[in-house]
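Suppose a classmate hands you a notebook page containing two proteins, each written out with its sequence and a corresponding row of structure tokens. How would you begin to make sense of it? This section walks through that situation. The first entry is reproduced here exactly as it would appear on such a page.
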Amino acid sequence: MNVRALRRRATLAYSHWNRERKAAFALQFARRHNVRSLLLVGVSLFRLPTENAVEQRLVAAGFDVVASGLGQAADGPDFDQPTRWPNYVVADGCRLPFATKSFDLVYSNAVIEHVGTESDQRAFVEEHCRVGKNWIITCPNRWFPVESHTDVLFKHWKAGFTDEYGSITRLLGPRDLRELLPRGPRIYGTVLSPTLTATSSTGA
């Protein structure tokens, strides 16, 4: 087995562990804050086996869930429909079509790095603040040596890095994330952590 294959296997093993860890954190947070209604922002359409693992754990926990994303329903037996979600709404995370404080918790997992410019990311955060009584935003840490989407080493440290499809538009480090947030929210993770997690709660 070559070095790239070994690195890919290690990355997938880490990804599974990290998703389980993020799900456990979100569930603990939700229970601590008596969450009943939950908005999932930026869910995908199950094209890969690892997609939506964290979000599916939250769905299975029995919350009143609405899932939102940019994917549209499509015809054909080989396409997984958004209707696999209990309640699916086509929505841009930077312009959510929901009333202020209409959900106990708004959750997005590794979405903010895909939404666009710094201005778009700020709008994304502001919508979490507006729609949710509590919220959690996670993102991969720009300064972790391995970029989790592409399995590359160090290349993502260069200014203007995007993946081959252009879907990763702006990776964030701890300082970048802090500058997008209002005063008050907590950030879990250090400059060397693989994942950064920002939270805000009505009890904080």
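The notebook's second entry, a different protein, reads as follows.
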Amino acid sequence: MPVRPKLLKISGEALKGAAPGVLDAVEVERVCRELLAGASGGTPVGVVVGGGNIWRGGGKRSVVDPTRGDYLGMLATLFNALALRDQIERLGGRCEVVAPLRVPNVARRYERTEVMRWLGAGVVVVFGGGTGHPFFTTDTAAALRAAEIGAGELLKASNVDGIYTADPRKDPAAKRLDFLTFDEAVDGRYGVMDAAAFALCRDNRVNIRVFDMTVPGTITAALGTNPPGTLVGVKT
């Protein structure tokens, strides 16, 4: 049986690191090294990257119309996607950037058959441009692409090592949960992902794994057979 892909959702802010600009070269290289190490284990790897290090979409309502703001945010994700491709290729890996629409020299137009062929050949596929429509978050874009490629898990990169019974920064008695069903995640109001993204994953049986990507090695581990963090999914 073919290995099901895993899709990593990473924020734009995660690529900024502590750098004063929009990208931290050291952090981008670390992320790409870990992606390639994970892919070398035989897991097909897709990535959805955000653009919050550059633009936070419709949130900048005082600057532009919110719909145009979302389009600006989608363009920002392409900036980050191209940076990831550049670094992956510098490290000797193969990568393709796809988006809802073709952007010459930046991104190919999303075609599922072609994407599945690349994934099967060990190419890291970076999905930029969001869904191509305003009013949808990159979480929703990640859930959509994960469902389309038949991903076994959507890896939600975070700065916390999973889901806790309470905020561990405020409550020392908080306990990390290893597993939650989709219903338990809803009932507990853990805010795993936005509602549309969560519903897409639940309805298409794509498990969600929340893990701390800031610790070196965790991205590779999340793509492996003994992943860290909390799994939200269907009880077997």
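A careful reader of the second entry would note: DSSP finds eight helices and eleven strands in the chain.
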